[in-house]
Amino acid sequence: MPRTLDPARVADLPSLNVAHELYAGLTRFSGRGVAPDLAGSWEHNADGSVWTFHLRKGLRWSDDRPIVAQEFRAAWLRALAPSTHAAYAGPALGIVQGARRFHATGSGPVGVQALDDRTLRVTLQHPVPWFDQLVAYPIAFPAPPRPNAFSGPFRLVSRAGKRLVLERNFNYWNAAAVRPSRLVLSTSRRGVDAILPRGLAPPGLPWIETAPPVAGPGWKPLPTLSVNLLWLVTRRPELANPITRAAIASLAGDATLNGLVPRAMPGHDVITSGSALIVTGQLEPETLTLAYTTQDPDAAARVQAITAALGRQGVTVKPVAFPTLAQLVQAAGPPARSDIDLVMLGWSSKILDAYNIFDLFPCGSAFNVAQWCDRSYDALMRQTVRTLDPPARYRLERGLLQEKLRRAVPAVPLSEPIEHVHIAHGVSGFRWSPIGFYELAGMTRS
Fold first, then answer.
1. Average predicted confidence (pLDDT) for the chain
2. What structural domains and CATH numbers belong to the chain?
3. pTM of the full predicted structure?
4. Sequence-separated (6 or more) residues with CB below 8 Å from residue 185
């Protein structure tokens, strides 16, 4: 059940899911991007550092009072205030000019202005192509000015125990497109119209835990923006040679490294196009230590496969199991414990930058378990995340993959997790967006 319905404070998956039904933002997730929601249109300046959103005419809260641009500004400042303890304020709003200082100190100018009741202007620290997606998260929604005031497709009419009752909000600007007149949300798995992803994960680095595959009518496999990785700790003497790492990739996983880019990721075909050198041959290390967590239900089988593959080349793999992901993360770093060579640790994309699988590998990345560092990679990454034109950005990302990662092999993709949801026969209108998901301290996605 949701821990809170305050859009600024939601962090657990049930709260995020319900917040999206009760509240609306400037944009809303749709397919592989976003669609206009409370903002009917928006534009940015030539370099993408200033975004201007234009609210629709006649927007009203469920209690019939008008929704105005000033309420967005007030909500963002409240979310950034240290006393609010808003989990997503830094990841989602930190790119706004002055937001990081305000988030740390509670004072200073912030680059968000209400020019009038229907115009919101936002100035960023530097351009990011996906700012229209960041504002689709509840953290960027206007805060309810009064109890029981809702801006989204539904309004809350009852909350008791493990049961929420929502009814259609007829003041929502697009109420005509909201088909159900009533939603009953509970934790039951019997007699329900739909079962959504569990979305639960242990604490630690971003991870993915999907609902189990279930055979039978109604269950749908769905793509995610996640990947399971075998990290190669490049600062270990045994793995310092990129040819050795490439040989391991050819034996243990995807030697092309194309699997680093999930198939659901925008630009996948462009980014992964091109040939890759596949290195095979005898490996030099005699023994490699592989760390993993038993909380990953597929880990044992993958460890066995890797051990067998490397064993055929004369390399002994010594598995070290950790009962929890938190313990694995503590041991794997960065920096990794001095006796660990390989780390099996999955990744789910951050909030929200659909392209940020490449964020794992800069020298200063807190998630760079491989401890690999190439300043030219960092320079190309800085250019990539500031490139607004998608085709141009995909070509730069292809360079990150082909010219940098394929030569260095800091990590080997093992698999792409698939999500499963259940939709009862006759239920229509369900949409899935691989972009519309979340993670924070173990949070995964919606």
1. 85
2. 13-187 (3.40.190.10), 226-415 (3.10.105.10)
3. 0.81
4. 18, 163, 164, 165, 166
